[in-house]
Amino acid sequence: MTNERNNLIDQFKTFLISRGLAKRTVYDRLADIKKTFFVWIDNEQLMLADVRINEAQSFQGWLLNLRSKKGTAYSNGTVSNLIKAATGFYEFLKTKKIVNTNPFMGIVKVKERKKIPDNILRENEMDMLLHELSCFEREPTNKKKVVMYRMHVLAEILYSTGIRIHEAGALREDDVDFNEGAIRLMKTKEGKPRTVFLNEYAKKVLFLYVTKIRPLTRYRYVKTDYLFNAQGSALLLLLNRTLKSVCERIGIKRITCHGFRHSFGFHLLRAGCPLRYIQDFLGHSSLTSTELYTRVEKEDLRNVVERYHPRKWKGYS
Fold first, then answer.
1. Mean pLDDT of 263-272
2. Cα–Cα distance between 112 and 75 in angstroms, integer?
3. Is residue 117 situated within a structural domain?
4. Predicted TM-score (pTM) above 0.85
5. pLDDT over 70 for what percent of the chain?
6. 89 with 225, same domain?
7. Domain endpoint, select from 105, 134, 160
8. C-beta neighbour count of 217 within 10 angstroms
9. Residue 97 burial by CB count (10 A; 0-12/13-18/19+): exposed, middle or buried?
10. Do 100 and 228 fall within a single domain?
11. In the chain, pLDDT over 90 holds for what percent of residues?
12. What's the order of all strands across the beta sheet hosting 176-177?
């Protein structure tokens, strides 16, 4: 890239950070602009100020015709994220008075149909998983016991609150209010702080970890102020590796760390919790994202019909 573009990207990064977006989201938005939008305007021989609504619509069409390294078309969800990056970029350009309007605000955007999550455990399977994670004393060395214990506490927090792994990784002790049984999330994907609540068991587990166990291990194995002694991708990889091993050991479907979030939303819905409350817990800006769990419930009902319908019993289906 030219020095001028590098400078713009650096300023755009500062702009995104100032809006409170998570580090991972900032990284993705910058990569999206460099790898797709800048490529497109160079192909079209356009200046930034030349992009109007028609050009912005054409950019979306160009994205829909792109192919991945495997030769497959980009999904609507991927295209939607790339358009979000371009929209944010032009909001930034407006603040710098490089453009007067944001052309991406006026285009007809592709409809993003979110996939039904496949890494959701049943309530009894989740109980099995959490119980197995709590058996950290079985680990062969003290260091492995400490790691497994930390994963046990982390899993209880993720399932109790539905927070994302990167949100958990950014937590510090001061973010936890044990009197209220609440956690204040300052770094969220949406860029807006929100409060989540601990169930009684998770609160007790976390309190024991913070007041008794963490002080004993914090400086022996790692020196950091982060609550779980790691953040971002490092914490994600550690938990996912642990989950893979534990799920195989107890014979249940393997889930990743994000599976706790999906299971949280789905289990609350099955228990009768109103969708609006689940939306607030998960921090979804739109109810559309939360309605994904009602589609999972419909899939569940379809399986019940296929299993119990009398035509199935008689071998007709």
1. 88
2. 8
3. no
4. no
5. 89
6. no
7. 105
8. 18
9. exposed
10. no
11. 56
12. 176-177, 182-185, 194-197
Give yes or no: residues 191 and 290 share one domain. Answer: yes
Amino acid at 184: R
Q: Is there a contact between 283 and 190 (Cβ–Cβ < 8 Å)?
A: yes
Q: Provide mean pLDDT across the span 78-94.
A: 94
Residue 190 lies in a domain: yes
In this structure, how many other beta carbons lie within 10 angstroms of the beta carbon of residue 28?
16
Question: Helices marked H in 99-188 — which ranges?
Answer: 123-134, 142-161, 165-169
How many domains does the chain fold into? 2
> Are 175 and 192 within 8 A, CB to CB?
no
- C-alpha distances (whole Å) from 21 to each of 13, 27, 232, 289 are 10, 10, 14, 18
The answer on 32 and 135 residing in a single domain is no
Domain assignment of residue 223, given as a range: 123-304
Within-domain flag for 116? no
Radius of gyration of the chain (CA): 23
**What are the residues whose beta carbons fall under 8 Å from the beta carbon of 88, sequence distance 6 or more?**
12, 16, 29
214-235 pLDDT, tens digit per residue, is: 887 665 545 578 888 877 778 8
Beta partners for residue 112, in sequence order: none
